Automatic annotation (TrEMBL):
Source organism, top-level taxon: Eukaryota
Name of protein: F-box/LRR-repeat protein 20-like
Gene: LOC102806056
Domain F-box/LRR-repeat protein 15-like leucin rich repeat: 2-101
Higher taxonomy: Eukaryota, Metazoa, Hemichordata, Enteropneusta, Harrimaniidae
Length: 160
């Protein structure tokens, strides 16, 4: 297990060295390692073939390309059980497509991933029916009220 959550100075270079030497790593927490990019995921995909749990929450530079590297790796197809992608703003439904081959995947966290849709989650569940998907969708903004009333921006508040 490697927990470096909140280590905001860690870069891709550090994780490249780690992936070269930690081939038996099973759990990795990279939450809020804000400097890492898809390059780190490419190295983890190659160098950490038995990874079971990976947290990338608040890793805001991660994109679908990084998840593609991970989704086609030996660890993802044979071992990966949990992936946390909360607050990864560049992640889209394409990432869910890349993870569909992860037959051991039991849970995915997608809170505040604005580009993930319900349709994308439904497609993932078609391939992985036992997966637990944790996501949050903000309410749809209703249209301005008829008759010149104040505009409502969400279901729970009125801008005065």
């Amino acid at each position: 297990t490697l927990e470096v959550a909140g280590c905001s100075q860690f870069t891709d270079n550090g994780f490249q060295a780690l992936a070269r030497n930690c081939h038996r790593l099973e759990r990795m927490d990279l939450e809020e390692c804000v400097l890492i990019t898809d390059s780190t995921l490419a190295h983890l995909a190659i160098g950490c073939p038995v990874l079971q749990k990976l947290s990338l929450s608040h890793c805001e530079l991660i994109t679908d390309e990084g998840i593609r590297h991970l989704g086609t790796s030996a660890c993802a197809t044979e071992h990966l059980q949990v992936i946390e992608l909360d607050n990864c703003p560049l992640i889209t439904d394409a990432s869910l497509e890349h993870l569909m081959g992860c037959q051991c995947l039991l849970r995915i966290e997608l809170y505040d991933c604005q580009l993930i849709t319900r349709a994308g989650i439904r497609r993932l569940r078609t391939q992985l029916p036992d997966i637990k998907v944790h996501a949050y969708f903000a309410p749809v903004t209703p249209p301005p009220s008829v008759g010149g009333g104040r505009q409502r921006y969400c279901r729970c508040c009125v801008i005065l």
